[in-house]
Amino acid sequence: MSLTLSEAAGAADTGRPPALGLWSTADRGRTLLVHVPHKQNERIADLSVSENSRAVAVEVIRIGVPGRDNVRLVRSTRSVPLAAPLGNRKLTMTWDGVKVPLLQAVPAGGQDAEESAAERAKKELVSLIDTLEPGSALPSERVLSERLEIARMTLRHAVDELTLAGKVSRRRGSGTYVAESKLLCRITPDGLDLDPAAPGAGFGHVHVVRDVVAADEQVAGDLGIEPGDLVLHIGRLLLVDHRPFGLVSRHIPIARLAETPGAPSALRWFSERTSRVDTRIQLSTATPAEARLLDLSQVQPMLAWHRIAVDKKDIPLERTRVLARGDRVVIDLPS
Q1: 85-98: average pLDDT
Q2: Handedness of CA 268, 269, 275, 278 (dihedral sign)
Q3: 25 pLDDT exceeds 60?
Q4: Is there a contact between 323 and 302 (Cβ–Cβ < 8 Å)?
Q5: Which superkingdom is the protein from (predicted)?
Q6: What are the structural domains, with CATH classification, of the chain?
Q7: Helical residues (DSSP H) of the chain, grouped into ranges
Q8: pLDDT class for 215, splitting at 50, 70, 90?
Q9: Mean pLDDT value of segment 98-105
Q10: Which of 22, 43, 48, 212 could link 35 by a cystine bridge, Cβ 3.0 to 4.6 Å?
């Protein structure tokens, strides 16, 4: 196929070809957009495209207009319909018979930037979220897909991104909900607690594990003991307004615990012997078992931190792992 642009022909010119060309597609790959930076005194006289199942070749014929050599560069854009979507076919371009390097265009933004279906879906969802109360359920996937007139796969991708951004949360077997209000928290020797000055929901916990178990390799490595050595494992499910918010898991070597008489006072004794606490904070996701306890999808972002308490001899006393919902927690770190 060939597209001819009517231009006033001028004197022939043998200038250099453009340093590069840019390309993009529209209409689901069926329209090729070619962007060419060139001298202001040059005109595109003819642009032809030949294509087969493996390649698409663009040939640009230009006309040079008499003028100064040191003219400014301008950008021309030409739109060409293709017989089939570009897909993975190889794309090449020549300028007056000389091959020009091609780069796929990524718009810098503005009114001319084409908005993807997923981006449009995200904007529509955010507008809907702004009209709902925290904790409110979103309409079903089928209803949203019909309302926004987008494919379910595209909608699912948009919801995934909003989940990672903390705008919504997914509950196992229940649906998608508007993210609840943020909670100002502080790290404590026991794991996590609401800041005393933070207004809002009440904070509580339920013990889900309190047992003597064999240390796995990760726990043993953190505590400086051998895998299989016995440790006291204390696990607590953190609750806000009776809903799961986070998990705290503590491991204490039984051998160290035996150094102190009286089990009721042993944990307090450990806190008193702590000389230093090494803390590492990172983004994480829940394991399948943790996701079930927290009533969340595994893609929900979580904030995890590991704390290793050591005594004056740098011997580990205990290991604490805290996992909290990343869409709700705001950590207050004391100076």
Answers
A1: 87
A2: negative
A3: yes
A4: yes
A5: Bacteria
A6: 2-104 (no CATH), 117-178 (1.10.10.10), 183-331 (3.40.1410.10)
A7: 117-129, 141-148, 152-164, 217-223, 254-257, 263-273, 288-294
A8: very high
A9: 85
A10: 22
User: What does the block give as tokens for 263?
Assistant: 């089990």
**Pairing status of strand 302-310 against strand 276-284:** antiparallel
pLDDT band of 194, cuts 50, 70, 90: low
Query: What is the C-alpha end-to-end distance of the chain, expressed in Å?
Result: 69
Q: Would you state the structure tokens that stand for residue 267, as one six-digit string?
A: 């944990």
- Mean pLDDT computed over 45-66: 83
Taking only Cα atoms into account, the Rg of the chain, rounded to an integer number of angstroms, comes to 31
What is the token pair recorded at 247?
């998990």
Q: Which two tokens stand for residue 240?
A: 């806000």
**Pairing state between β 73-81 and 168-171:** unpaired
Is 125's pLDDT higher than 80?
yes
DSSP 312-323: TTS-EEEEEEEE
Which residue type sits at 20? Answer: L
